[in-house]
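Worked Example 4.2. Consider the chain below.
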Amino acid sequence: MLSGETAIGDDPVATVTTMDRIVRRAEEYFDYQGWGASLGVQQIGAGTRSTRVTAAITGAAWRAAMEEEAVAIVACTRSGMTARAISRFRPPMPIVAITPSDATARQLHSSWGVQEIYVSPAQDIDELCEVAVTRLKQSGIAKSGDPVVIMAGSTSGGAQVTDTVRMLIVP
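Applying the procedure from the previous section yields the following structure tokens:
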């Protein structure tokens, strides 16, 4: 949306302010639930088996979060792909990423809807769920009794793939 007008115009600050207002208004009226529902299990990336599995899991996570009115969707991710894949649905609840990588955490700051990013060396899915719930409670996103959707992966056949979605009720 940025154009030469921004860089060479008489008032670049006013141009960016106007573009910001237009984008905010467009996002306010956009039907994100309809958008997410229309995506279905769409292939992402190069269409490898692991990206197709991740696409299916993120679709299931989005539907579960919407149906149960989850307060957050947690993406446990090494590369950031899981968080970016769920963000394509534009869920109304925050997306929280947990990653062992500082580089991935930095990259995710520019992903739509990823509001919180935590760096954790945890590898076990149960431990990741525990870290997620603790952090969500500390940040005020979740409280006792709230539903939370958590996606995580494993090394299946040597490839890293997001293959698990869990619905947790915060204790």
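The helical segments are 4-8, 12-29, 32-39, 49-67, 81-87, 102-108, 125-139. Residues 49-67 form the longest helix (19 residues). Compare this with Example 4.1 before moving on.
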